[in-house]
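Try it yourself: sequence plus PRP, in.
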Amino acid sequence: MKIHNLSKENSVLNCFLSELRHVDIQKDAMRFRRNIERIGEILAYEMSKRLTYQSEDIQTPLGIHTSKLPKNDLVLCSILRAGIPLHQGLLNYFDQAENAFISAYRQHKEHPESFEIVVEYLACPSLENKTLILADPMLATGQSMVATFEALKAFGTPKEIHLVSVIGAKPGIAFIKKHFGKHVNLWIGTIDEHLNEKGYIVPGLGDAGDLAFGNKLQQ
Ligand SMILES: O=P(O)(O)OC[C@H]1O[C@H](OP(=O)(O)OP(=O)(O)O)[C@H](O)[C@@H]1O
Ligand SMILES: O=c1cc[nH]c(=O)[nH]1
Ligand SMILES: [Mg+2]
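Structure, out:
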């Protein structure tokens, strides 16, 4: 897997990341969602440099300009709920993409530390020979990303795969590396060291879905 960790370079991305993490600023849910969306836009821009381009003649009012334009058939798939603002950020730039949505949530057992990933809702176009972009802002244990990808296999074989996330944890990245081939790209805002006993990224930012959309009852 090729990992593109954008926080390795100084950029305005770090401002958006630090606002997402900040215990007071993150209480403003609208700002929280917009910061995830802005990071989605930055990740889309960086990823766009690695797509396949072809020349196309564009008629202007005064002549013809030959532009190099991306020719990939993109399918943008996001994991609900927290993936919604990240999806919007990616779609702001990849506005011609087809779209897929999948729900994956942690179903907790008797102990808060143990959970399994439940995939229920899935709406997806054909993925055959397309460029799949699979997005989820939090890559903690990596189980949601892997469970989602397994569910998507029924929709065809993409010719290119890009995973997109805002904050990842080293153990989760090690886990997904085992499941995705070496040609798969991971575009990520930043990578933290640890997971706590409940599978949350430390220092991370807390629960992205709840911060974006409010608390939910545990099932
Ligand atoms: O890498 P993992 O250990 O699988 O954890 C990451 C998952 O946790 C979050 O979703 P959550 O289950 O909180 O659902 P929500 O978006 O509905 O809040 C996040 O958006 C990922 O989907
Ligand atoms: O740190 C984490 C882990 C999973 N889901 C989140 O929203 N945050
Ligand atoms: Mg959540």
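One thing you can check immediately is this: Helices lie at 13-21, 29-48, 83-93, 143-152, 170-179, 208-213.
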